[in-house]
Amino acid sequence: MTKVKICCIADEDEALKAIAHGADALGLVSSMPSGPGQISDELIAQIVRIIPSGVASFLLTCQQHAETVISQQRMSGVDTLQIVDRFPVAGYAILRSQLPGISIVQVIHVAGEISVDDARIIAPYVDALLLDSGNPSLATKQLGGTGRTHDWEISRRICESVATPVYLAGGLNPDNVTEAIRQVRPHGIDVCSGVRTNGQLDPLKLERFMRAVRQLP
User: Fold this and answer.
1) How far apart are CA 134 and CA 46, in angstroms?
2) Nearest to 170 by CA among 155, 157, 182, 187
3) Domain residues for 50?
4) What is the dihedral of CA 64, 65, 71, 74, to 10 degrees?
């Protein structure tokens, strides 16, 4: 069954709504150059404390120094680090040694054929990849939450090219998630704006989204 991560959780109420609708993981966004859902480190830690066992807590971080990421994890208490910007390969080993038992997910912003090569290089060092539609090359980096889809054919090739689990993100919503899963066959999917209305988590959209995912074999 495809895993579902609900991202950009804003407060405890949204966390509980997502969990009640069957989310397998929650995404908590720390400070970013741009994009939605950013909350304080203190609020992230507060939300993590109410997440039950069996639901993963993802900290989205744009930090590129292992020591800073380690400090974020220790303050927040999350069980998964989602690194949304480029990260030095040597840094993964530091995270492993200092944070045993904490999962590492590296975001690949799908931008063409080079993304397939990037995924193959990074996959052996992390627990999962997450394919998104940002653009780290802009003057103000876009590192997620764009609401844009990307080329699912490239995402499918990445899934087929690596042994590491792959999450698919980027512009998913109740109307396109079924087709996205059929085309890409990811381990999991990740949604933010696609289940929101005026920036707020929408229970009706969330229910439709979960139903579209769970109806697939």
Assistant:
1) 28
2) 155
3) 3-214
4) 70
How far is residue 104's CA from residue 42's CA, in Å, rounded to a whole number?
21
What gap in Å lies between CA 146 and CA 164, rounded to an integer? 25
Task: Return the structure tokens found at 204.
Answer: 């009706």
Please return the burial class of 204, using the count of CB atoms within 10 Å of its CB with bins 0-12, 13-18 and 19+. exposed
User: What domain count does the chain have?
Assistant: 1
Neighbours of 157 (CB within 10 A): 16
* Whole-angstrom distance, CA of residue 88 vs CA of residue 199: 33
Residue 124 CB partners (closer than 8 Å, separation 6+): 164
Alpha-carbon distance 35 to 7, whole Å? 12
- Please report, for the domain that includes residue 89, its CATH number: 3.20.20.70
Pairing of strands 25-29, 3-6: parallel
SS3 132: strand
Give per-residue pLDDT as tens, 95-125: 999 999 999 999 999 988 899 999 999 999 9
pTM for this one? 0.94
The C-alpha atoms of residue 217 and residue 204 are separated, in whole angstroms, by 23
